[in-house]
Amino acid sequence: MSNRGSTDLVLTDAQRIDWLRLLRSDNVGPRTFRTLIRHYGSAGAALDALPHLARRGGAARPGKIYSSAEAESEIALAGAMGVCLVGFNEPAYPGRLRMIDDAPPLLSVRGLVAVLARPMVAVVGSRNASAAGLKFASQISRALGEAGFVIVSGLARGIDGAAHRASLSTGTVAVLAGGQARLYPPEHTELAAAITEAGAVASEMPHEWQARAQDFPRRNRIISGLALGVVIVEAAARSGSLITARFAGEQGREVFAVPGSPLDPRAEGTNGLLKQGATLVTEADDVIATLQPIMGLSRGPLLAEEPVHEPPSATDPGAEQRARIVSLLGPTPVAIDDLVRLSQSPPSVVRTVLLELELAGRLERHGGTKVSLL
Known about the structure:
The chain is α/β, with parallel strands linked by helices and 374 residues long. The protein is built from 16 helices and twelve strands. The chain has helices at residues 13-24, 30-40, 43-56, 68-80, 95-98, 131-146, 159-166, 189-198, 215-226, 240-250, 268-275, 284-291, 312-315, 319-327, 336-343, 347-359; strands at 83-87, 106-111, 120-124, 150-153, 172-175, 200-203, 229-232, 254-257, 279-280, 334-335, 363-366, 370-373.
């Protein structure tokens, strides 16, 4: 299958299994997945190359590769819950999420998949919300829903839950930090079921994954990635909602903040966002007026399931090139463009060395296309 002609790809059952196997294999994140597909043309070919790449990156032994049986079992368990796995290239995949550079290659969705195509606004905030904060979150979510927006949030206690409940009838999307079979918090199980009646529950994590602390920031990038803009209702100085706001800014989304009393620590983060240039919000019309001019939806680049770039042999680094590139890396993050310039190597060769190091578990990727050695 090819993306030439600008049509979306539809994965076959066999390709979906290969995509899931590749995504769930050790040291393969969203960016690495996309690099591998572009490099090798298909998930099946990339799976075959993983052990060789990891060894070239310095791994003592290759990482675990997700088996076909494991992938088939996960798909079957998801299907039994009414969950489908939507691929990055497929028509149902949300177009705005596809635009971010670390978009999930596969998104598990329960509920109405079609809701993902509608314009969304994220409404997030404090778990320990004030009565005023909960009331405002409900009011603005209801008004935005009536204006045609889907409300996206994180199914958390407090502001998130209020935003979801207020937009149940007009459409809301809950993004999970864990798997579909391990909802958090557990007391929102009934809320999640209600959401699926006119909206959707989405996750990038394995079906039975139990959410850990580090999984919530990963979830937050999806919340902002789905949305045209993010409304922060209440946020303390170290609130996870500020992480969502940061992702929104990096992704080119609009950031809105609701002002609060300087005496309330739950407003410290939102008031700080306003000082940094976030748009002040006191009613839904403030959001609508800002978003209407940017309602056009870009689909973002597609991935191919056949080679469309240079063949791997053309980008294989020599021993001297590899040593030079690795010598420029250290614990301090460095921009990939700087590695290309300083190593005097083609960008494709630098990307290949970084891919090998990542699959060997030796490389960490940072924001702004920076990398460092672990």
